[in-house]
Amino acid sequence: MERQKTQKEPKRRPKYGMFSCVAYIYRILWRTERGLVFTAIFTVPISLALSALSLCTPPAILRALSQSRSPGIVALAEPEKFLMAAQTILGLLLVQLLLDLTNNVIAAKIQSSENRVLAHLGHIWTKYVRERDWYHDYNPEARKAEERVQQGTQNNYGAGVHFPMDFANILTQVLKFFLFGAVASLLHPAVLLLLALGCGLNALMGKWERRKNWEERDIRNDLEKKINYTTTYISQNFHFAKDVRLYDMKPFLRDRLVCLFGRSEEESRKREYRSGLTAAVSFLVILIRDGAAYLFLIHEALTGKLDAASFVLYFSAITSLSGVMNNILGMMNRVSEGAMQLSDFREAMEFQDRLNRGPGIPLPGGPFSIEFKQVSYKYPESDKQVLDHISFRIEAGEKIALVGLNGAGKTTLVRLMCGLLLPDEGEILLDGHSLYEYNRDEMYSLFGFVPQGFNLLPATLAQNIACTMAEEEIDRDRMDSCIRQAGLSEKIASLPRGADTSLGRELDREGTELSGGETQKLLLARLLYKDPPCIILDEPTAALDPIAEDRMYRSYNGIAARATSVFISHRLASTCFCDRIFLLEGAGIAEAGTHDELMAAGGKYRDLFELQSRYYREEAEKHGGE
Question: Which of the four pLDDT bands, split at 50, 70 and 90, describes residue 455?
Fold first, then answer.
């Protein structure tokens, strides 16, 4: 079903043409690696000289070593002429050797330059992804575009990085065409026309194959992503190792791979069919084209119109001219493919951000109000309405708890609150102003967010807490205070380098690994260090023991006193100290009020609270009896 759905999608066409893409990459080259442009041009005369030597050397050697006394008889020249011939041969070979050496040195320099340009394109892409609005990560079209970019920038054969050398080679091949064509046309002009017609037919077949392959690349990219995820990410990732073994997931993974490889093989057969068809047509064209030219050449030699040296000269010219035409086709195909990859690269960076990246209104100086007005949201590619015309207001400095069953939309709501996601309908106001009125990056500084899914850098604990790699920017006294409030002092004191110990052992063998609870404390210390006017904690006590949980609540109360705060929890006992509690259910707020008000109302909140309380009491009685 998935494959059929993908195949029914309308055919894509590159947004940018070849000349636009060539201009784009050359602007980048001129800023970053302009030497590559001049180096590529320098290869033209060298390559042309090598071709001229290859064409002229065999007949020159033949004439130097022999002379015709009568038709079909070749005799050696006098010793003086032989010595001259030997010097000529050695001279030609020496020149060719020097040109080959120069060409190899230049080729190595060009490859290094192309790798640097490719790295620069990678930097442009990662910078764009890092700075674009976060909600794009949920856009399926943005994910497809990212896959195209990754495929097109894997090596220096993609994304137009090779354009300087390709155009230099095309220019070289065109000049060779005139060189060899001039020689071949001396035999008969029809030879040149015959070779050109065959080249045109091959060009049409190559264009058809290239276009079909490009149109289906999204299907191949999707399959490759799934195969890599299953083989590399799951099979080699430490976090999956226990589950794969304990739950005997190997048969499942094997069956999944068999299915994916089967579909991939089907796509490969399509490409192989097109490639085979193109190769077969090309073979027939070359057979007819070159065969006719060689037959005419042999006829001219047999009738005595050509001597041995001329035969070798024309034979080399026809052979080289055929190769030159094929090379021109190959280079044009390469340039066309690079232009399409470059068009994908440019299109992938054109997803428009909706948040304000320019000057914004001044930020509130302290805790601020948050208001949702008829806000609705649904994740892309999902039929479920997560939030449906939801409205509420949180006053400045107020403490709010969000509770509800899994999937009720609590995490989505706080992501909308701080501008990570944007509503499909409705309006979100911060301090009475739309979040679009603020500069995006300045607005982000208002929030301190401890999410369920977190990522910490492979840097020192101090750098992770202060969120800076510059040691001189870390306020050590402030950091130590935050570590104490978060309850992480004992752990850090046990480390040989204290807060300067690296987190993780990926880059530092002497680094440390934190438990789930210790990581939550580190995230709280980072939040305390930032000291934002609005804090959002998404299940902060999920990995903590009861003692640590009580300490976390006390710390939360301390920082919540000077900030607007939102707290998400499944443990309803942790919501009692909040000013108000919102119970989310059915894509909206089902109940709202203080803990006492909701308990008195006897609704869903009370049912959940009593259910959890009964469970905790039973556990306490059980352990007390033991």
Answer: confident
Main-chain dihedrals φ then ψ at residue 566, nearest 5 degrees: -130, 130
* Cα distance between residue 423 and residue 389, in whole Å: 10
Asked if 279 and 228 count as a contact pair (C-beta separation under 8 A), the reply is no
Q: Give 434-501 as a DSSP string.
A: EGGGS-HHHHHTTEEEE-SS----SSBHHHHHHT-S-GGG--HHHHHHHHHHHT-HHHHHTSTTGGGS
Task: Please state the φ and ψ torsions of residue 372, each to the nearest 5 degrees.
Answer: -105, 130
Q: Are 231 and 257 in contact (CB under 8 A)?
A: yes
Tell me what the mean pLDDT of segment 465-486 comes to.
86
C-alpha–C-alpha distance, residues 426 and 387, integer Å: 11
Contacts of 516 (CB under 8 A, 6+ apart): 542, 543
Range of lowest pLDDT (51-65, 130-144, 195-209): 51-65
Question: What is the overall mean pLDDT for the chain?
Answer: 78
Q: DSSP 3-state helix, strand, coil percentages of the chain (rounded to 5)?
A: 65, 10, 25
For residues 373 and 390, give the distance between their C-alpha atoms in angstroms, rounded to a whole number: 7
| Token output for 401 | 């708890």
CB 310 within 8 A of CB 59: yes
pLDDT of residue 419: 92
Cβ neighbours of 120 (radius 10 Å) = 16
Specify the pLDDT at position 421: 93
pLDDT for the residue numbered 430: 95
Q: Which residues of 143-181 are buried (b: 16+ CB within 10 A; e: fewer)?
A: ebbbbbbebbbeebebbbbbbbbbbbbbbbbebbbebbb
> Where would I find the H helices in 132-236?
140-152, 163-187, 189-215, 217-228, 235-236
Confidence of residue 6 (pLDDT cuts 50, 70, 90): very low
Helix, strand or coil, per DSSP, at residue 75: strand
* DSSP per residue, 422-444: --SEEEEEETTEEGGGS-HHHHH
- Side-chain half-sphere exposure of 276, counting CA atoms within 13 A: 6
Predicted local distance difference test score (pLDDT) of residue 551: 62
pLDDT at 436 over 90: yes
Tokens representing 536 are: 């959002």
Is residue 123's pLDDT more than 70?
Answer: yes
Chain mean position to CA 334: 21
Question: What is the Cα 218 distance to its own chain's centre?
Answer: 14
Angle in degrees, CA 121, 125, 128, rounded to 5? 140
- 63 falls in which pLDDT band (50, 70, 90)? low
- 451 Cβ contact list (under 8 Å, min separation 6): 411, 538
Scan for tokens 């063998």, then name that residue.
Answer: 509
Q: Residue 502's CB: how many other CB atoms inside 10 A? A: 21
Rg of the Cα atoms in the chain: 36
Which pLDDT score, from 0 to 100, does residue 429 have? 95
What is the token pair recorded at 296?
A: 């005419």
- Examine the pLDDT at 336 and tell me if it is beyond 50: yes
